[in-house]
Write a structure and sequence with these properties.
By secondary structure, this protein is mainly α. It has eight helices and no strands. Helices cover 80% and strands 0% of the residues.
């Protein structure tokens, strides 16, 4: 393999633009998945089956269809109904929505892991339902699930290359377009692969550290 440093120098401006977009999609997509996942988890615990069943169907539908299909639907079909956003905004919404169905399960496990005595204590103190959730249950549940949520951030990062399907110029798409223009593929694809390792591996170590601190 002939490594050409001049190609690396030429590619780097495109690469850093791709890194910025990749990290932006990862951060905003993760925040959206955390927020929506908590909403789904709470709605799935409501007594009314008229709420639980539609939400449950929606969550299972999203989990069991490919992310790329969902991105295509959001980007190409919704504009036919008058809903149109940029490729990056669509990618963030799509990837955040997709992963929210998985974080919902994480929240569910965290809520169910709160000791029954905490519920009984809140009832004995006659705390309103909202205060019980906000002051007693959710703080304990979220503390338990932070490491698992962090693992989904890493998984979401590794799925950002899917966004190239709708034209988002994240790292892999920058490398693909650079290669198509220059017919130089070895350097850009290698750099992108190394970048994913350099981002995801330290993040996974940090998640293990958090798990030791918060759970044990």
């Amino acid at each position: 393999m002939n490594w050409n440093w001049s190609v690396v120098d030429e590619f780097m401006p495109y690469f850093w633009d791709g890194v910025r977009v990749t990290l932006q999609a990862t951060a905003l997509g993760s925040l959206l998945s955390f927020a929506l996942g908590l909403v789904w988890a709470l709605l799935l615990r409501t007594p009314s089956r008229f709420v639980r069943w539609p939400v449950g169907f929606f969550v299972e539908f999203i989990r069991n269809t490919p992310l790329l299909v969902q991105l295509f639907f959001l980007f190409y079909v919704l504009p036919e109904w008058g809903v149109q956003t940029s490729a990056l905004a669509t990618g963030i919404i799509g990837i955040g929505l997709h992963y929210s169905t998985y974080t919902a399960e994480v929240y569910r496990a965290g809520i169910e892991g709160v000791p029954a005595g905490q519920w009984e204590a809140a009832t004995a103190l006659s705390l309103p339902r909202g205060r019980t959730w906000g002051a007693v249950i959710l703080p304990q549940a979220i503390r338990r699930v932070v490491p698992a949520l962090g693992n989904y951030v890493i998984a979401l990062l590794k799925d950002t290359p899917m966004l190239l399907g709708i034209g988002v110029l994240e790292m892999l798409n920058q490398a693909r377009q650079f290669g198509a223009q220059t017919f130089q593929y070895i350097e850009p694809y290698t750099i992108v692969g190394i970048a994913f390792i350099l981002i995801s591996y330290p993040a996974s170590l940090f998640m293990r550290y958090l798990e030791r601190r918060l759970v044990h």
